Amino acid sequence: MVNKVFIIATSFLVLHLILAGFFELIDDEAYYNFWSTSISLGYYDHPPMVAWWIYLGKFIFGSTTLGVRFFPVLSFFFVSLLVGRIAFLVSGNKNVVLSVLLFNITMPIMGLGFISTPDAPLLLFWTSALWAILEGLYRNNSWFLLLVGVFLALSVMSKYNALFFILGLFVWCVSTREGRETLRSPFIWLGAFLGGVLLSPHLLWNYKNSWLGLEKQFSRLLNETTGFSFFYEFLISIIIFSTPLLCFFAIAGLFKPHKYRKLLLWIYLPSLIYFLNHSFTERIQGNWIIIFFPWLAIMAAIGLQHAHALWRKLTIFTGLFFSISILFLGLSPQYVIFSGDNPFNQMKGWQSVENKLLSHIDSANWVAVSEYSMIGRLTWLSGSSRKIWAINEPMRYHFRSEFPSDLCSTPGILIEKFYGGDDKTELVDSGKDPDVYLDRNIGDTKLMSYKIRNFSKLIESPYC
What we know:
This protein has 20 helices and five strands. By secondary structure, the protein is of the alpha/beta class. The radius of gyration is 24 Å and the shape is globular.
């Protein structure tokens, strides 16, 4: 059994390492790579863990796509092993191998298993915290409760969604007999203390920066309701991402008695309620719900436990077929299957425009950008952020040195994504030369256009 789990986890590790080294970064990865050029205790969009991981990966493999992605890829390998152990703790030997396989063939794990985002460390440390508390209960060993606090602190340092784990754990502790017994152990309080110590530098960073990171994420709670369209889309996405059969048997597994059922429900329920509520205000991205898939895989294995062997084979086959098909079609270097500025397309076509962009960057005094995706992308392509400066949203860039004031009146170029339509740019003057437009293509298909404007000074910028 252990050998089978290790073989499955290693097989997907090898697949994701190959993909990590072969395909270009998506925009968000390039942005997080930009973070890693100036290590900080916090950033505007997310806590710092992903930037630290990228920094360490590049220390080993250099400024390569594999360097940026190495530790996130490795984290999915360890999550696979943790899923196997949790499946054993919850329901014994019979569901371990199937749980690990089902976890790896779901679309988010297959597709995000080689991408460097904050969701990778969040998933690792979230699943590690769940394993630690289950292991402690299973062994009746309170020492594991120390690890719960440590892993939860590391989860929060990865993404603030981990606070919902803490909320769910608290509700389980006060609402169940087993939970109240856990609260009597001094080790859980010592674990909470250790977690607080680990979190304190990041909390201090937030305090010194006017709670910048926490304000960004929790301001989402104040978004205006937009209707039911994203709510229905969210429900459908769970079915599609997990694949229909796996989702069906996961729901069936929820209603079957198994060990630690209440604990698992409370760990995941607050996050599920939050996303259901948040879907009334904006679209829920597929990577946001990645934390649910270890749970869904284990529940599906429990749901399939007494089903005919044919259903297990069909669930595995359909999961593999859909996930591999989407991955193959999306990553195809010669064709564009999914239109729009999506992560699949962001990895393609750079050979058609990279040299032209670099030529403009090299010849300019400095380069201005107006969106975070471009400062990340241009820094990645050029290998340096020295000449590249954002001229708006200063809260995003607290981690780098102060904007040079002399650039306000220094001629430069502005590089922006161009979606068509209104061509007016108010951040800089029009300059003497006409705007230049560069297209990133695959064959005859345009993936994205970039507008390059020469200007003599900034007009509207919080820096000037």
